[in-house]
From TrEMBL:
Family: Belongs to the PDCD5 family.
One Pfam family from the record: dsDNA_bind
InterPro entries the UniProt entry points to: PDCD5-like, PDCD5-like_sf
Superkingdom of origin organism: Eukaryota
Entry's Gene Ontology cellular component terms: cytosol; nucleus
Protein name, per record: Uncharacterized protein YMR074C
Species, as recorded: Kluyveromyces marxianus (strain DMKU3-1042 / BCC 29191 / NBRC 104275) (Yeast)
Length: 133
């Protein structure tokens, strides 16, 4: 019984190391592969200080880092990035993403005040309380 249990555990461990065969692991594997590909591209276009800056920001604001990463990936696909980005470049991108988030999150209340006309065409004022006469 002990040997069977050990064999099952070893087989399961091998299966997990190979990525598994279940659909949930397949979806997770595809997502992990896409994340690894994104990370590889970011490693190619960012210098060490820029990578460190992004990792520090990810601890505090992970949604902002995801926005920066998607912006960088789009820039790479369009060919806009030719040199490695420095920490100052990343700071500028982070600030612009922060401004965009702030614009989306600010609430604006607009009062549309229109001038009242002097009197309607029939010559009577609309201010009369017809209900209480």
């Amino acid at each position: 019984m002990d040997e069977e249990l050990r064999a099952i555990r070893e087989a399961r461990l091998r299966e997990l190391k190979q990525g598994g065969s279940s659909s949930a692991q397949g979806q997770g594997g595809a997502q992990a592969q896409a994340q690894a590909q994104t990370q590889q591209i970011l490693n190619q276009i960012l210098d060490a200080n820029a990578q460190e800056r992004l990792s520090r920001v990810a601890l505090v604001r992970p949604e902002r880092v995801k926005a920066v990463e998607s912006y960088l990936m789009q820039a790479v696909r369009s060919g806009a990035i030719r040199n490695k980005l420095t920490e100052n470049d990343i700071v500028g991108i982070l600030e612009s993403v922060g401004r965009d988030e702030q614009k989306r999150n600010t609430t604006r209340i607009i009062f549309d005040r229109r001038e009242k006309s002097a009197l309607p065409e029939d010559g009577q004022s609309d201010d009369d309380d017809d209900f209480f006469d």
